[in-house]
Amino acid sequence: MTNTTVSPTQRHDESTLHEVRVHGHLDDRWTQWAEGLTFTHESDGTTTLTGPIADQAALHGLLNRIRDLNVPVVSVRRVDAGGENGQDSEDGEVSGTGTASTTMRAIVQDHYGDSNTLHLTEIAKPAVGDDDVLVRIRAASVHSGDWHIMTGRPYLMRVMGFGFRAPKARVRGMDMAGTIEAAGKNVTRFRAGDDVFGTCDGAFAEYATARPHSLAPKPANLTFEQAAAVPTSAVIAYHALRHKGAVQSGQSVLIIGASGGVGMFAVQIAKARGAVVTGVCSTGKMDAVRSLGADHVVDYTREDVTRSGRQYDLILDMVGRSPLSQLRRMLTQRGTLVLVGGEGGNSLTGGPLLRSLRALVLSLFVSQRLRPIVALANAAELQALTDLMDAGKVTPVIDRTYPLAEVPDAMRRLAAGTARGKLVITM
Known about the structure:
Blueprint: E1 2-5, E2 16-23, E3 38-41, E4 46-53, H1 56-68, E5 73-78, E6 103-109, E7 118-124, E8 133-142, H2 144-151, H3 156-162, E9 175-183, E10 195-199, E11 207-210, E12 215-217, H4 224-228, H5 231-244, E13 252-256, H6 261-272, E14 276-281, H7 286-291, E15 296-299, E16 312-317, H8 324-329, E17 331-339, H9 351-363, E18 369-372, H10 379-390, E19 398-403, H11 407-416, E20 422-426
Parallel strand pairs: 13-14, 13-16, 14-15, 16-17, 17-18, 19-20
Antiparallel strand pairs: 1-3, 2-4, 2-5, 3-4, 6-7, 8-9, 8-11, 8-20, 9-10, 10-12
Helix pairs in contact: 5-6
């Protein structure tokens, strides 16, 4: 390893020695903005920046500048007076300092691939912006969007800004529940100590920053684990039924994929709105779907629902294996078909994107409404779901919980399609 010492600035009495480790070998061109830090080029291709940093604000400023230069931060460590690395204690403090730790554990990913690309490591705790909140994550959950970002498929998403050769955001996970640790100066909806649930970037970590519009107060009658299971899946189900489907009391609703993360919420929400619900799932999950309130349950391994001859006012298709022509035959003359995801698509359906485009074009020429859906968790719909959960009409269903280190196992179970409910990560 080689050392490059940048001309030091005067060290204030309150300054604390830190080590910031980053990917890549930084050269002399980087020293202009790093006065007072020593660069050590490590044999593993990383660079360690060591030096005095006055306070937490100065550290966050340094980390933000590093990120602005598109240099990934590997870890941040406070070093005590004897030159030994401080260790995180159980209460989140760094021993010997009495100040909050600047690092956290997180599940990170440096290139696209399967669950083997995910690993637990210690990285810098994110800095809260003026318009953000910093959330201490209590629980998170896994859904299909995490799988898509992990694998980088469909490839179009890479072009859409998620990262061309590697994920733009290193930390995986979106759905979470936790406690506000700090709020930016422009944030008025939340304050430190508030329990919340919603979405963020990097939920598979001990801390994450989030925008207030993607959060809502955690329902008082739910645990953090239950609340973490709600955001994306429940919002998609609610949006599909309430806005795209405009479901009304007494209407007949068919939910294909009723035992999945979105489907289990859809069954409950449709029943809460007075619909007559038929759920389609596999043999082993029929009892679970029936227990959620479905009036009829169809085992797709024994019966092809598209050939039943029955018609429905609204169909939600989460699976994507049936061509549009077959689904339309099951719709009433002015019925509505909502396409949700559809990772199970095949050569007959053309995949989710092509299928959605066909539906939009076909809707221009037929009396039936064919609607793909894109929905993100937002405060208004999270609050509407909270009202349903407070009334006991919707309850999150959890299949299993995993500790943070076992996120790869949770992703494998998600990909296998064997879960009976949501997969939740506990901190």
